[in-house]
């Protein structure tokens, strides 16, 4: 989109300028009046998060200006897509990105397992081609390269694309859409597998994106997408998944309608534990007449049965989110009043949404630890908390009594990494899906569990 607030504004959108931005900077956004998928002209408000900074735009200095943008979640009664209404220019969001997937050992293990599954399931060979959209630093594609399978990554963040290329992953640096997919197809790029892990939620032009992916597929190919599952997000009050990069929140019902619009049939679906509960969806060209697994009809029926296709399903979500934030802030204030030193762990986008909506700032937390060296030395948007190395947990003078685990979706991995901190009497405060703690006393139960931390997990709710 143009930096002009009026030029190239999508139909059905209202332009805006973020407070705190300076004239001529790329801090514009539009408010969508129509559904991003089906174009329906009336969206039902689910949750208003107010004006918040961009969750992944970390600050270089504590006093660096950072504009705030409105953020509201809405439901489309026509196709069941849940989406935010605000679209910030993608160049602002993704031009220089600081999330490197390879910093997470759990994500690396998940990617390796996915690659091995696809190689086996699709009988991929040295004559095959796997294309990944939003390929990050090559953390997934490198597994196919190791098996001698041809790959191509498409990654919009130049700094990350350069890392992937240096690591031997052929990568094109551009924003993917219909035009790019069709151009690559004309160039002879026809994929056996098109992959998109945690990218669909980031896409403003859903129809153009899916059309581009379909254009690159061989007639016998498959598109495989992973994304956080809306059902888990609502059930577990995972509101911190909501930020400006995540434009859409998918049910299988909404995905099914979107793919069908572009000649793709959802042939299989799997529920996976990653990111607090996700779906892995397999889609194949309709012309191939793919066999549809029973899991597809089963999940579609389940969504209808519990009401996910109606606005009433989402009515209590906003109050549950407010109650969760109130409980967390009360707990932090009680701890501070008792003289505890508090900080946070994980300078994640999730954490930014949580802290800014709940009003958690330097009066409650001293700093944020993060393992990513790309984030260390920066400051969190909104509250300007310093992001430091976890090495600080070994310093008796700065070691906090408790850490708010902002990256709660990686609780098991982080707890294992910081076992020494827990053994020394520290604890993690886990805010979602309910307020509870991880300490040395219950760490073994967490390690034994194969389930993600959640309502069915091993930890009891903290009173």
Low-confidence stretches: 1-11, 21-26, 450-463
* CATH level 4 superfamily of the largest domain: Vaccinia Virus protein VP39
If classified by CATH, what would the architecture of the largest domain be?
3-Layer(aba) Sandwich
Number of domains: 2
How would you portray this structure in words?
The protein is of the alpha/beta class. The chain has two domains: 1-309, Rossmann fold (3-Layer(aba) Sandwich); 317-448, NAD(P)-binding Rossmann-like Domain (Rossmann fold), CATH 3.40.50.720. It is built from 14 helices and 20 strands. The chain has helices at 90-94, 105-121, 141-146, 158-166, 178-186, 206-216, 230-235, 252-260, 294-306, 317-337, 349-358, 411-417, 419-423, 443-448, and strands spanning 13-17, 28-32, 44-53, 68-75, 82-84, 86-88, 129-133, 150-154, 171-172, 191-197, 217-228, 248-249, 264-272, 278-285, 342-345, 368-369, 387-388, 402-405, 427-430, 436-438. The strands form four sheets. The protein has a seven-stranded mixed sheet with strand order 9-8-7-10-11-14-13. A six-stranded mixed sheet has the order 17-16-15-18-19-20. A four-stranded antiparallel sheet has the order 3-4-5-12, covered by helices on one side. A hairpin with a 6-residue loop joins strand 4 and strand 5. Helix 5 (178-186) packs parallel to helix 6 (206-216). It is globular and about 65 Å long. The chain starts with 12 loop residues before the first strand and ends in a 15-residue tail after the last helix. Residues 1-11, 21-26 and 450-463 have low confidence and may be disordered.
